[in-house]
Design a protein that fits this description.
Elements lengths: L7 E5 H11 L13 H17 L3 E5 L7 H6 L8 E3 L7 E2 L8 H12 L2 E3 L6 H11 L4 E4 L15 E8 L3 E5 L1 H8 L3 H11 L14 H11 L2 H8 L8 H9 L1 H11 L21 H11 L2 H11 L2
Parallel strand pairs: 1-2, 1-6, 2-5, 6-7
Antiparallel strand pairs: 3-4, 7-8
Helix pairs in contact: 1-2, 2-4, 2-13, 4-12, 7-8, 7-11, 8-9
Length: 309
């Protein structure tokens, strides 16, 4: 990765194409009748994002492993309810709508032909790729995701914010520390601790039984961070209610491993990739062939025109 000092936009690609799939009617189809609603919806998303935010660099971050074994070894319930098929070697198969799965290779081929950097790293989730690019960036970073887990990367001092889609991609919540503190009572640095205390059924994270979002925020306000809360559990003079102390004590085995599962990695071995936003397609012939084969029409044309500006 070259020295990135301009505005870097990082796409949580699967999060966005899932939203496109459910937001664009499946009547949007290729000439042969194959649904391409996720493909065209994602291209429209990227077009709007580039128009509105004008990043200098852009990376489509991918889930090379949506449920890494090293996370599952620590918390076996991690994303377990989303497993369609367990595989003894390689990533488990994720439960994905039947008409979405065939669109993912098309998305990848189109991004590659355009020349938009696409990065996934074996044994890591897209969140970890995003975390590592963010850690290495020297300029402002816009993270585009529908996954609140990435709020933990928000950092006003470094110009890191999350653009969270509220409705399609036309209405984005620009999430900075002020937004997080107003809604959750913590800044970016405290969000991972809040999340692991609260738990997240959508990711199979149990959290601390009886500790919801408001209680987690109050504990973090009182004791600073997870380490401070754990120190308070060991301190009979700390201002914990008997019930809180009991619940936290019983959850100590979970709290010992949850941080590594919940916090995104920032040390992923990224490939050497050109992240600069392309002005012209990397492979014009492939772009034309893909446009014709999949009927990408105006969605692809608009994005190419926006990139050329």
């Amino acid at each position: 990765m070259r020295d990135v000092t301009g505005r870097l936009m990082l796409l949580d690609t699967a999060s966005l194409y899932f939203r496109a799939y459910f937001g664009v009617p499946d009547s949007v189809r290729a000439p042969d009748g194959t649904p391409v609603n996720a493909v065209r919806g994602l291209l429209d998303f990227i077009d709007r994002l580039v128009k509105d935010h004008r990043p200098v660099d852009l990376v489509a971050c991918m889930d090379a492993d949506w449920r890494p074994k090293w996370r599952v070894d620590l918390i076996p319930s991690y994303k377990a309810h989303r497993v369609a098929e367990e595989r003894p070697s390689g990533p488990d198969e994720e439960e994905v709508p039947d008409t979405l799965s065939p669109q993912v290779p098309v998305i990848e081929a189109v991004l590659d032909a355009i020349g938009i950097a696409r990065v996934g790293v074996s044994e890591y989730e897209a969140d970890d790729v995003i975390g590592t690019f963010t850690a290495r960036a020297r300029g402002p970073v816009d993270i585009v995701t529908g996954d609140r887990d990435l709020y933990q990367l928000v950092d006003d001092a470094r110009g890191v914010r999350v653009l969270y889609p509220l409705k399609g991609v036309g209405t984005l919540q620009a999430t900075d520390e002020a937004v997080l503190r107003e809604k959750y009572g913590v800044g970016g640095a405290g969000y991972a601790d809040l999340a692991l205390l609260r738990g997240d059924p959508s990711d199979g994270l149990p959290g601390v039984p009886g500790v919801g979002e408001k209680t987690a925020a109050k504990l973090l306000a009182e004791f600073g961070d997870l380490a401070g809360i754990l120190a308070a559990v060991d301190d009979p003079r700390a201002r914990l209610t008997p019930t809180q102390r009991k619940r936290l004590t019983e959850a100590l085995p979970y709290l010992a491993v949850a941080p590594k599962v919940v916090r995104v990695a920032d040390d992923v071995p990224l490939p050497d990739v050109d992240t600069a936003l392309p002005r012209t397609p990397r492979d014009p012939d492939a772009v034309r062939a893909l446009a014709a084969r999949w009927g990408l029409g105006g969605s692809l044309e608009r994005l190419l025109a926006t990139l050329a500006r």
